[in-house]
């Protein structure tokens, strides 16, 4: 069980310095959020293993239980179309809370009471996954983002071209039509030294799911029941999540053509290989180093720390 250890005063929490408002996000949602000791915040840019990590955390909290409705328990706090009542309802949760965000560090409230899991994925893989996500979204989802009062900035729109076309816009617009990719990665990499922050990589989850789950459990100070671990591992597999996608996908998968199994799509990397030219691959890799530095760029591409 999580113990409330006194936070080491040598590690200052980063301060929030700005707000982000767009078709998806309203960062002010965090400003008055009342943290509890042991809260867990799962952060990513987008399409980088957020839902997978939420599933892992839910299984650790509930000891391998069947039928855990993850989106109902773990809302995207800064998603502006989520009713405030859903965020307020977190006060009623008696179990250890686990929350979702897509914000960079400097637009988020970082609390010493909470543990932060940041999950990253090679940008090319994230872009390809985002293309699938938005190409198969129903009109209702676009209407929710674009017509809900309070929209700041441009609307979100359906991709009209190929995955390669989408990638080109994503690359040239730094995450467009979503939010900045490079600053998101950079801000979390910069605070990786904090004792309440752990970086996780999508490749790591695919390469060694059992070891990744144990590492996350250790970081969260959750003692794993060895009798339950095989069940936890099975419930965190892609096959299980695909078969029970209505318990993982937001709104049960209703906003996507094909339902929840479309949201839990392939979970594969490298779909850009053979599509991007050698020049485009080199262009991406050079940009990654320029934006992030060599060590972070290498980790982002491979999941391996130097």
TrEMBL record:
Limits of the Sulfotransferase domain: 37-281
MF terms (GO), sorted A to Z: sulfotransferase activity
The UniProt record lists the keyword Transferase: yes
Leader peptide range in chain numbering: none
Superkingdom of source: Bacteria
Keyword Transferase: yes
Keyword entries, A-Z: Transferase
Gene3D superfamilies: P-loop containing nucleotide triphosphate hydrolases
Pfam families: Sulfotransfer_1
Family according to the record: Belongs to the sulfotransferase 1 family.
The protein's name: Sulfotransferase
Organism: Rubellimicrobium mesophilum DSM 19309
Lineage: Bacteria, Pseudomonadati, Pseudomonadota, Alphaproteobacteria, Rhodobacterales
């Amino acid at each position: 069980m999580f113990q409330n250890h006194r936070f080491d005063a040598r590690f200052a929490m980063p301060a929030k310095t700005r707000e982000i408002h767009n078709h998806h996000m309203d960062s002010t949602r965090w400003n008055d959020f009342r943290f509890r000791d042991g809260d867990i915040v799962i952060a990513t840019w987008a399409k980088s293993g957020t839902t997978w990590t939420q599933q892992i955390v839910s299984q650790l909290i509930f000891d391998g239980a069947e039928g855990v409705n993850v989106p109902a328990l773990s809302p995207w706090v800064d998603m502006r179309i989520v009713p405030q009542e859903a965020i307020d309802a977190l006060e009623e949760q008696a179990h250890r809370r686990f929350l979702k965000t897509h914000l960079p560090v400097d637009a988020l409230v970082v609390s010493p009471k909470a543990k932060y899991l940041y999950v990253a994925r090679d940008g090319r893989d994230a872009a390809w996954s985002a293309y699938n996500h938005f190409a198969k979204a129903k009109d209702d989802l676009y209407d929710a983002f674009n017509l809900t009062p309070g929209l700041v900035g441009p609307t979100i729109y359906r991709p009209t071209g190929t995955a390669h076309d989408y990638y080109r816009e994503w690359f040239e617009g730094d995450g467009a039509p979503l939010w900045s990719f490079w600053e998101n990665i950079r801000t979390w990499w910069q605070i990786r030294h904090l004792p309440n922050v752990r970086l996780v990589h999508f490749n790591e989850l695919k390469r060694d799911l059992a070891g990744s789950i144990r590492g996350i459990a250790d970081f969260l100070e959750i003692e794993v029941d060895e009798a339950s671990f095989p069940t936890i591992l099975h419930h965190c597999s892609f096959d299980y999540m695909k078969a029970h996608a209505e318990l993982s996908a937001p709104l049960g998968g209703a906003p996507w053509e094909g339902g929840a199994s479309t949201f839990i799509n392939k979970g594969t990397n490298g779909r850009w290989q053979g599509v991007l030219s050698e020049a485009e691959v080199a262009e991406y890799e050079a940009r990654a180093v320029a934006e992030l530095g060599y060590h972070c760029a290498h980790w982002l591409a491979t999941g391996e720390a130097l």
